[in-house]
Specification:
With about 260 residues, the protein is an alpha/beta fold. It contains nine helices and ten strands. Helix 7 links the parallel strand 8 and strand 9. It binds zinc ion (ZN).
């Protein structure tokens, strides 16, 4: 595994260099899950997350809110190079305990997508182990910060592409209503649980009054993209070095997938 990671990092080093020659008027929308001290693949350690925040700051990345990015795309303006949006899925307790203080320290805006039925309880991580989620009190405290935006991620975290459309619609409405009532706000974005999305689901989200929706499909976002199927690059435990992290901010992860899956061509 360690050897595989070293090879991957070496490949990303080359792809990062190639990426500098590719179109730059794009935004990376980063997707994080839990930020904690465990060895789960999708978990990023708190000190690594802080290093990544520092990297963005020191290298003059423009960290903007998802709402601002949606506005740029909707008004067909050009996205500035080195634009980054931070998103966190699943409402883990570590978002309140570890992420919130770091965001305040760096003055970075972020969107947190919460599955309303799992608030104040636990949620299984990518290894099937339960991890605590935030309470409504903690979510409320975060949402009072101008940096933080809380948006729905369904009720039960089921994959919408595997349940009847009517049930998915009910989850979209219920999770939106609960967040709007509890936090006294209007929701504008939806994250499809487990990435399950298609045109029917994107249409549903649009009809229910959202301005945008995000997926887990890899890639950078540009003006002209479908605003109800925005791509996001997942930051996981392999991003513990700047080479792998930089690969999530540019074209490298898409180039890597193309290189390693010739059938996609
Ligand atoms: Zn999720």
């Amino acid at each position: 595994m360690a050897f595989k990671d070293t090879v991957k990092t070496a490949i990303f080093f080359c792809l990062n260099a190639i990426s500098t020659f590719l179109p730059r008027h794009r935004s990376a929308v980063l997707l994080y899950h839990s930020i904690d001290d465990n060895d789960v693949y999708l978990t990023v350690k708190p000190e690594i997350f802080e290093k990544q925040a520092q990297y963005l700051k020191e290298n003059d990345y423009r960290v903007i809110s998802l709402k601002e990015l949606a506005g740029i795309i909707r008004t067909k303006k050009e996205i500035q190079p080195k634009t980054v949006v931070l998103t966190f899925d699943d409402g883990f307790l570590s978002h309140y305990e570890k992420v919130f203080p770091i965001l305040k320290k760096y003055n970075f805006p972020a969107t947190f997508f919460v599955s309303t039925g799992l608030v104040g309880g636990s949620m299984n991580n990518s290894q099937g182990l339960p991890q605590s989620t935030m309470t409504w009190e903690q979510i409320k405290e975060m949402s009072q910060s101008p940096l933080i935006d809380i948006e729905p991620h369904g009720v039960s975290h089921k994959d919408f592409s595997k349940i009847p459309l009517l049930e998915a619609e009910r989850e979209i409405i219920e999770s939106k209503n609960e967040i709007e009532q509890r936090l006294n706000k209007k929701c504008f974005s939806f994250a499809f649980p487990r990435g399950g999305c298609n045109q029917d689901l994107a249409g549903l989200v649009k009809r229910r009054g959202f301005e945008t929706a995000v997926t887990i499909k890899k890639g950078l976002v540009k003006t002209g993209d479908d605003i109800f199927m925005l791509k996001r690059n997942t930051v996981d435990s392999s991003c513990d070095n700047n080479i792998q992290f930089l690969a999530r901010l540019n074209w490298s992860v898409v180039l890597f997938d193309r290189l390693t899956s010739p059938l996609k061509f």
